[in-house]
């Protein structure tokens, strides 16, 4: 059975669901920290929080689909759109861009597509999570400057109303970007202070993105699209099972690739080895336990699977340049 074809206007019109690509303070915006939830049989369940300003629209969107969908875009608008894709798979074809944009977990890109006709493809029973930002064309052009080849090309495309993307394909969301997204999501301020906090963090996030666009990592053509999908799925598996004892052969079975492709492909795609990624996840989890839980170093070592606390301390010091006890005391003395 093929995908169900749906016009985006069918979603955007029900229950006053706001268009993520719309910018303007007179449109629908949520209040407070709670998600607004909409459900429609064909579309699935949409939950969102958003903040609207005269020159930008920030939306934290979660989408649970019921069936495979082809979502046909309408009313593209004259805005620059950014997707920090946090979870799930979304494939989009934009009119005027040669390649399909394949968004995978922890990837991002920027698109200007003033012509109607984008086609979004999502699978059935998918869980998508997107942090979406839109800027008006004039505001975006004013703030990026014109001091390098990337910005010159972007400004030319905007001036002549030509579709473009920040880079070919997608780039990985960096730890700094994740921290800024978390800061915006968790912002508990109210009134004008909240408005300023969200806008300043959003502009800082844009700055990190543009900096990455200006010096992107090379695109590795030797990784096939289906293999890249499997490696993204493997990384999601590691994010959920980083405390488990995992072997390379187990990971190969998880993603359906042989040992060589797991080792080489993961390093090419994510810039680190599988097991270095696991160690980093474990040490970040240890940091969280030391800072936010009343646990001793020995207890944290046990949770992370270390038989001896001094082995954990050595690994932690290698990651943080400080022992667990020193790290904990330094943080709390700074508070």
From TrEMBL:
Domain HTH araC/xylS-type: 232-330
MF terms in GO: DNA-binding transcription factor activity; sequence-specific DNA binding
Pfam families on file: HTH_18
Keywords: DNA-binding, Transcription, Transcription regulation
SUPFAM superfamilies hit by this protein: Homeodomain-like
Protein name, as recorded: AraC-type DNA-binding protein
Record organism: Dyadobacter psychrophilus
